[in-house]
Amino acid sequence: MVAAAILYARGWFQLHAEPEHKNPVWEPTLFVSGLFLVWAALESPMAAMDHQFLTIHMAKHLLLMTVAPALILLASPVTTIALGLPKQFVTGFLLPVLRWSVVRRLGRFFAKPIVCWLAATGVLIGWHIPDIFTLALRSPVVHSIEHFSFIFAGFLFWWPVLQPWPAMAFQSRWLVLLYLFLATLPCDILSAYLTFCDRVVYTNYLSMPRATTISVLRDQEFAGALMWTCVTIVYLVPASILTVRLLAPDNRTRPPDNS
User: DSSP readout, 157-202?
Assistant: First the structure.
């Protein structure tokens, strides 16, 4: 993460030095904030408590998959980091690799909105299956794979929505609203199940030492409510902004001058 921040800063200052490429000053703040949230989910004291509380575990998932990738992609990371890399590495290795037909086909495949949606939904549902969830808690290797898959799926999910270069744009921006709405459905189902279920879904937490008097079942209810609330708010923000833009009158259309 430190290396990514250094490369991003190097590329951003190069862009900012060119008069015709004045990147917004808030982009580095978004990028660093996204990296900080990844660190908070993986390495902060909070991260060590996910074996005791499902709510903490859910907060980590939300940071890695929902919040941090959105902040990072809003900072235009692809072009900026590419400029921050050594030119010899870009021209001698990176660009030739990106020109490979296999790499280009994979890029087009993973950039498709349906693939992005299915990947994010599959990762979300798959890792919350009780047996797989318990395996991730018990195995550090599987737990690391889980974290990586959440981050990767988060970038894929937000790619068609935020459309950083070189994302494939929707044919109609109205489809982005449908995309976001459909994305809330699996989250709503899972969070509602955790919130209103009258039994402990992840029984592994029953044998874990707890630092508070909150019961495992109540902790599960908190986790479901956190997911429900966070996903609704985070997805509602871009949907509201996009709706306002789509419904706003075209400023380029002016009434005829009758003078």
Answer: HHHHHH--TTPPPPSSTHHHHHHHHHHHHHHHHHHHHHHH-SS-S-
Any idea what DSSP says for residue 207? G
Q: Identify the three-state secondary structure at position 211.
A: coil
Give the start-to-end residue ranges of the domains of the chain. 2-81+108-247
pTM for the whole structure: 0.88
Q: What is the pLDDT of residues 121-165, one digit of tens each?
A: 999 999 999 999 999 999 999 999 999 999 999 999 999 898 887
DSSP 27-88: HHHHHHHHHHHHHHHHTSGGGGGTTT-HHHHHHHHHIIIIIHHHHHHHT-HHHHHHHHS-HH
Tell me how far apart the alpha carbons of residues 203 and 60 are, in angstroms, rounded to a whole number.
19
DSSP helix/strand/coil, 252: coil
Kind and range of the H or E run holding 131: helix 130-138
Between CA 224 and CA 193 the distance in angstroms is 8
| pLDDT digits 0-9 by tens, 216-252 | 999 999 999 999 999 999 999 999 998 998 888 764 4
How many whole angstroms separate alpha carbon 48 and alpha carbon 211? 13
Return the closest-CA partner of residue 117 out of 50, 180, 47, 210.
180
Angle formed by the axes of helices 113-127 and 174-196, to 10°?
10
